[in-house]
Amino acid sequence: MYAEQANKLVLDAKRIEKLPHLPPYAATTVRAVTKEVRDLDREVSNLLAPYNTGSTQSSDGTQIKSSAFNPADDPATACALLVNHLSMRRNKRCLLAYHRVRTDKLEEMCWSGVDVADLQAASRRSTLRAGNQNAATSSLSAEEEQYMHQYSDLLAAYKGQWTDIDLTGSPEPPRDIFIDVRVLQDVGEVQTEYGSITLTKNSQLNNVRQSDVERLIQQGYLQKLG
């Protein structure tokens, strides 16, 4: 059935919106949808081939095929053309929706301070826990990795205009200046305004200045207690 693979992308996009992480890119499904669009377009060209009367050139130099097809003369062909056109349109809209949701998630991660290397490492750990040694080491496609790098550079340039304001911080003022945290992942030595602290996995730190570790909490390295 037409657009069946595209519907899988829509369901996947809906699932991504509710997940805290970004699942692997559905490359196989995306290729299947784009192949279906090309096949439908080829079928439309074959259906209209007997009615083509030549081609004309538009003002911008594009060749436009002229057709003498009259839907009233051949309702069956007209119906097939309509179904193919609507199927191609639906496939394209599903592709756009899927990539838009993933792009929004990537931009959200950039604002949260997530780096591409951290995302790849998290995806690799998740793959190993699932026992799949042959799966892709990154949940992003090559184009998504490039987009995330470029968006991060733009965001860094934008934030650089206001060095005294953390635009990626929480918009809500902190209730406590000092908090207790538990270390979920090894971080190592971190420089703060009042000196350096060492963050090792499963350790707990008390009375840490929240502004010094807020970004690490957002990135999932630390857990706020209490």
From TrEMBL:
Residues 48-69 are annotated as: Disordered. It comes from the Eukaryota. It is found in: Nucleus. Keywords: DNA replication, Nucleus. SUPFAM superfamilies: GINS helical bundle-like (SSF158573). Residues 52-69 have a biased composition (Polar residues). This is DNA replication complex GINS protein PSF1. The GINS complex plays an essential role in the initiation of DNA replication. The gene is PSF1_1. Gene3D superfamilies: 1.20.58.1030. One of its GO terms (biological process) is DNA strand elongation involved in mitotic DNA replication. Component of the GINS complex. PANTHER family: DNA REPLICATION COMPLEX GINS PROTEIN PSF1, PARTNER OF SLD5. Residues 74-162 form the GINS subunit domain. InterPro entries: GINS_A (IPR021151), GINS_bundle-like_dom_sf (IPR036224), GINS_Psf1 (IPR005339), PSF1_C (IPR056783).
